[in-house]
């Protein structure tokens, strides 16, 4: 199959434009400014991208039935990823991302791309994709490299992002479990300081963040 990064496929969707959702839809989405994207797509498909975050949703040609038009959205859900329960040595490796609306009839899988902060050169990771149920619980969807014909989705892991082929839209997050001390999670330090200092004291704020584009933006 082909995935995002296939120049021919990307070029095919370059001319597809999604129109903005009506205000009644926008008001119902728990979104923050700059951390979401929305549009209307038909049989030709298209792509939603949240700028500066590494998060996107590719709707392939033929995924939406002929003659149908779906209003779709994509947003970061940082508060939800913070609520993930700690399970042993498991850690969150990506932002929690919601794509929707749920329950859409899709003729072909869509491709959700999310950044992650795992060092894939370290082989001591067990990667899992989790989804949030309507009750708010996080449930395992698939463990990478253990996919079968009955697995509800498929994940293609790259150095700094993961492409997920989905039949069902919803809220997803990428997590990892280390089974030795060799598993490495990439972090970044963000240091902030005032541009003007009027006293002898100079304050610095230092944040330790996951090494993903969305973390610094949020």
Automatic annotation (TrEMBL):
GO molecular function: netrin receptor activity
Domain ZU5 positions: 35-178
GO annotations of cellular component type: membrane
Organism: Urocolius indicus
Pfam families: UPA, ZU5
GO annotation terms (biological process): anterior/posterior axon guidance
Name this polypeptide is given: UNC5B protein
Domain of life: Eukaryota
């Amino acid at each position: 199959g082909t995935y995002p990064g296939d120049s021919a496929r990307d070029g095919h969707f370059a001319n597809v434009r999604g129109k903005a959702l009506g205000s009644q839809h926008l008001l119902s989405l728990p979104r923050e400014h700059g951390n979401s994207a929305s549009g209307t797509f038909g049989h030709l498909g298209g792509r939603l991208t949240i700028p500066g975050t590494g998060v996107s949703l590719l709707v392939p040609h033929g995924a939406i039935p002929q003659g149908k038009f779906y209003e779709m959205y994509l947003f970061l859900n940082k508060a939800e990823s913070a609520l993930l329960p700690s399970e042993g040595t498991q850690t969150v490796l990506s932002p929690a991302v919601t794509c929707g609306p749920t329950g859409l009839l899709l003729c072909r899988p869509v491709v959700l791309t999310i950044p992650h902060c795992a060092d894939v050169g370290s082989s001591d990771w067990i990667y899992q994709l989790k989804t949030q149920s309507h009750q708010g619980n996080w449930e395992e969807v698939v463990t990478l490299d253990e996919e079968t014909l009955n697995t509800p989705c498929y994940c293609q892991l790259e150095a700094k992002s993961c492409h997920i082929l989905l039949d069902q839209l919803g809220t997803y997050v990428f997590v990892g479990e280390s089974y030795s001390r060799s598993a490495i999670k990439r972090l970044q330090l963000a240091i902030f300081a005032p541009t003007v200092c009027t006293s002898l004291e100079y304050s610095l704020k230092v944040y330790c963040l996951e090494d993903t584009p969305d973390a610094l933006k949020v």
